[in-house]
Structure formats: structure tokens, C-alpha cells
Amino acid sequence: MNISELQIHTILANERRQVALDQLRMGRGPIAVRELSHYIAEVESGLSPPPKPLRESVYSSLVQTHLPTLHEAGVVVYDCDLKEVTLSSHARSIQVYQDIFAIGEFTWADLYRGVGLVGFLAILGSLLDAPGVSVIDPLLWTSFSLFLLATVSVYQLWTYRFSIYNLLSEHR
């Protein structure tokens, strides 16, 4: 099943659906809708436990709107009788658009930006004779920064390669 870019945009345009997909990716199997709604309400409110009216509102919107939308798009398998939801194998096509880094909630762009900024500051500090940093030659800082950017790029390509491999092996 191919998900169109319009469907992907529609799915990811809603923050509750994004949080639901992120939480489903963290799990290894079916999640009860009640548990999922509790988690989303915690994220939205920043409180643990979240307020009951918010939990109920999130639960209703999941059951009436978000889970049926995700199910119709083929991203999740939603069992409305058992009130359980699981990611389908097609969820990977959405994940590419979310671009979340494997560690924490940083995107690849955030990681590249951070590595570039740290490298730039180290080189600048070395050129301006900043204490501690100026001990190392700017050329060495430049080389190290470029090596680190290359390492991050290789890691991203490597993880992408295995995600594609896993996706293809699921379809065999």
C-alpha cells in the first residue's frame, strides 16, 4: 500500500497523531488506546498524571478521528473491539518524513547543526587564543569537525540502509 504525500501531510499535520506514532514506535506490540491517550495527555499537559478532562478529550479524539484516519491510511492496525492499536509495516513511509534521530528527540538537521556549531566554535576559539581550545591547532580542529560530520553522515546512511533492508524483508 502506497501512502500519498498528501495523506502523509494530512497525518503529520496533527500533533496528536505525531505523538501517537512516536509512542507506538517505542513499543513492541499492541498498545491499549487508554494507555496511548494517557501518554498523549501527559505530553500535552506536562503533568503526570494529566488532568482527567484532557485524558477524556484525547481518548475521544483518538477513537473518533485520529486512529481511524491512521488505520484507513494503513499506518496502524486499530482493533476497535479490543481498543488496541499497533503500527503496521507501512508506518516506515511516514517515519522518513518525521526525520527523528535515534537518540532522543533530535532531528538529523539538529544533529548536523549542533556538530557544525561546536566545530565552528572550536575553530574560532583556537584562532582567537581562547583558553584550553587554543592548545590545539585550528587545522586539527577543522579536520576533527569534518571527521565528525562525516561520521554522523555515515551513521545516518547506515541506519537508513538497515531501515530500508528491514522494510524490504517484511515484504518478502
Automatic annotation (TrEMBL):
Annotated protein name in UniProt: DUF7344 domain-containing protein
Pfam families for the chain: DUF7344 (PF24035)
InterPro entries referenced in this protein's UniProt entry, alphabetically: DUF7344
Sequence ranges assigned to domain DUF7344 in this UniProt record: 9-85
Key words of the record: Membrane, Transmembrane, Transmembrane helix
TM region positions: 111-128, 140-158
